[in-house]
Amino acid sequence: MKVLPRFLRACRSEPVDRVPVWLMRQAGRYLPEYRKLRTIHPFLEMCKTPALAVEVTLQPVERFGMDAAILFSDILLLLESMGAELHFDEQRGPRVRCEGIREGAVHGLRVPDMDRQLRFVLEAVKQLREALPEDVALIGFSGAPFTLATYLIEGGTSRTFFDTKTFLYRNPASFHGLMGKLSEAVEVYLLAQIEAGAQAIQLFDTWAGILSPDDYREFVLPYMQRILGGLPADRAPTIHFSLGASTLLDEMKSLGAGVLGLDWRIDLGVARGRLGPSKPVQGNLDPLALFQPRETLRATVSTMLRKGASMPGYIFNLGHGIHPQTPLESVYDLVEGVHSFPVAGTAEGLSV
Amino acid sequence: MKVLPRFLRACRSEPVDRVPVWLMRQAGRYLPEYRKLRTIHPFLEMCKTPALAVEVTLQPVERFGMDAAILFSDILLLLESMGAELHFDEQRGPRVRCEGIREGAVHGLRVPDMDRQLRFVLEAVKQLREALPEDVALIGFSGAPFTLATYLIEGGTSRTFFDTKTFLYRNPASFHGLMGKLSEAVEVYLLAQIEAGAQAIQLFDTWAGILSPDDYREFVLPYMQRILGGLPADRAPTIHFSLGASTLLDEMKSLGAGVLGLDWRIDLGVARGRLGPSKPVQGNLDPLALFQPRETLRATVSTMLRKGASMPGYIFNLGHGIHPQTPLESVYDLVEGVHSFPVAGTAEGLSV
Q: Chain B: nearest CA to A72, how far in angstroms?
């Protein structure tokens, strides 16, 4: 009988033999084998060439024994397929251009044809499912509509999100129109990834934490509920991640996401206590804690495991993407620390 | 018999005739009279010339009828007086230099001599107390040690606070040494402001919200408790403000600050419920909500007042500093909305 990968078991609050672990941005610049490929291929070429995307996705799994692989891609590719112009500036980061968007002109954006415009993503997902060992789960993902909207409106990242907020405050109807269009695209995109073989889905609503709870409930929550309600959770569990959004924990509970990804600003024990045993949780080590000396890091990881794995449904991860300068030894130590942590009273569940 | 300004009454959870209001950065670039002065005088000159600092501090009080004035100054002036180099770059914002600080060399920093090095601050405070009407309270302030430490270590503002966090993770003992030195200076500085006539004190720990609760408890909390414990709360109530720190609400409760300033990421009703009637609260409108159309803004302010003023001890404010592009009409509307809000059952307390 086939054993479900422990990552997927944890997503369903089922017993596991060890705590599953993966790291956001685990395929990335802190890896020498990644940097080597990047000297030859620009970032977007790597995303759009299935063989390269597959190779990079597998790198951290092969090196560290991660329990899940997340498709190497970028949340902004969906915007490009919808009609926005996209390029990556080495200095300034990603730049997005979409004519008329600040005036509320949503008609320039179209729900993409997956097979024509995002075929490379679906192809990479298919190849990855063949390449990955059976016990390593494949996670597909998308940016969530609000976070995608911020990139469209700001043209990149922002400190204050001035343009996004003045847009939604001054033209709430246009903002809702934009959210509706983006939600359609996100749902189609995620369904296509599941169809191609993604076994779980992570929705990155990285910037939703800039909103007050009232604004979140008005401008974000209904769209997330609609998207999450339209996905086949029985086939592919969903994970919701947002940065600095631990104050929105009650709202997050009602999104309909299977698993909640937390950043490091909330105590994992407190979060599990507030969310209860029926809500699996993923997180939440500060990525910069990987710069701690070895012994301190071990102690930090242990403390986190005692809090996180106090009930079933826990996936170890960072509270945000891993930093490009992270020492490799810390990642080895972290994965070893997680995998050697004794999970109480669950051994009998393993051969199910 | 003298009536205590309503701002100070609210700081003590005493009954008020109307809800007091002031805005963080209320003396600043959104005011034409401020911009006019700035065309003649550089920012630091304005801070260091008592007559100018006084004039600018009074501007929003005179224009809008604010219930409190906050001394026009900058949190980084304390660092300069301690030995750091400071300049304001029009493009990049404040730049701080302090030789050897990243190597943990705290000895270059000294607790300043108030009378010699920060006389201009104390002089402005004195003049302000004479210039202000009796019913308008004067707030002194300082950056809190952690936030000051981030500027010293990063050399300015930061998105990820990489240098600060890797410093504290790798050299916790040096970081504690730095916090100790900064705490001494902050306490002396605040005592001198109270001595000169400040009627309340706000401690800005703007960046403390970047820390996990465990790290906050280890690296920040004890220093805040020490400073706040050393101030004469009966003479000058204390307000603690931090950005994105609503997840640290339980920790904030134990700081010893009289009033908690909240950013917009927590619902004011939820916060008051969790903190209880004995903890006065200040906040927390998203500064960018001042870009809402008039009718929407009025409704937003009403909703906030119903939540905030549901129990005594509420001061209306923004959740962060006012944005330089804020329309003046919005500020007029806001202040009028707050002052016309009926405060239930407190009229008998007014002639105390």
A: 23
| A212 contacts B267? CB cut-off 8 A | yes
CA atoms of A25 and A60, how far apart (whole Å): 10
Within-domain flag for A1: no
| Angle A297-A303-A307 from CA coordinates, rounded to 5° | 145
**Contact: A286, B244; criterion CB under 8 Å:** no
Kindly state whether residue B118 falls inside one of the protein's structural domains.
Answer: yes
Mean pLDDT confidence for A192-208: 98
Best residue of A153, A206, A214 to probe chain B, by most B CBs closer than 10 Å? A214
CA distance A279 to A300: 23
C-alpha distances (whole Å) from B17 to each of A266, A321, B6, B65 are 38, 50, 7, 15
Instruction: Please list every residue in chain A whose beta carbon sits closer than 8 Å to the beta carbon of residue B265.
Output: 209-213, 244, 247-248
Runs of H (alpha helix) within A281-352: 294-308, 328-339
Query: Does A174 score more than 80 pLDDT?
Result: yes
Would strands A68-70 and A137-143 be described as parallel, antiparallel, or unpaired? parallel
Q: What is the model's pTM? A: 0.95
Q: Is position B25 annotated as part of the catalytic site?
A: yes
Number of domains forming the structure of chain B: 1
- In this prediction, residues A123-134 reach a mean pLDDT of 98
Q: What interface predicted TM-score (ipTM) does this complex get?
A: 0.93
DSSP one-letter code for B287: G
CA nearest to B158 within chain A: A159
CB contact under 8 A, B165 and A211: no
Does the beta-carbon distance from B291 to A165 stay under 8 Å?
A: yes
Question: A29 an active-site residue?
Answer: yes
Average pLDDT, stretch A108-122?
A: 95
Is A116 an active-site residue?
Answer: no
Q: In this structure, is residue B349 part of a structural domain?
A: no
Q: Give the CATH number for residue B166.
A: 3.20.20.210
pLDDT value of residue B243: 94
User: What DSSP string describes A127-182?
Assistant: HHHHHS-TTSEEEEEEE-HHHHHHHHHHSS--SS-HHHHHHHHH-HHHHHHHHHHH
What is the predicted pLDDT for the residue at A107? 82
Do residues B279 and B314 lie in contact, with contact meaning Cβ atoms separated by under 8 Å?
A: no
- Report the residue count for chain A: 352
- Which amino acid is it at B35? R
Instruction: Give the A:B interface size as CB pairs under 8 Å.
Output: 85
pLDDT digits (tens, 9 = 90+) for B255-304: 999 999 999 999 999 999 999 999 999 999 999 999 999 999 999 999 99
Rounded to the nearest integer, the mean pLDDT of chain B is: 94
* Mean pLDDT for all residues in chain A: 94
For B65-83, the pLDDT digits (tens) are 999 999 999 999 999 999 9
Which residues on chain A are in Cβ contact (under 8 Å) with B323? Answer: 160, 162
Q: Is the pLDDT of residue B251 over 50?
A: yes
Q: Which residues of A touch B175 (CB under 8 A)?
A: none
Please give the residue range of the domain that contains residue B164. 6-341
Distance (Å, rounded) from C-alpha A11 to C-alpha B192?
Answer: 56
Chain A residues whose C-beta sits inside 8 Å of any chain B C-beta:
159-162, 165-166, 169-170, 209-215, 244, 246-248, 264-267, 270, 286, 288-289, 291-293, 296, 303, 319, 323, 325
Q: Give a yes or no: residue B63 inside a domain.
A: yes
pLDDT digits (tens, 9 = 90+) for A234-271: 999 999 999 988 889 989 999 999 999 999 999 999 99
Active site residue B74: yes
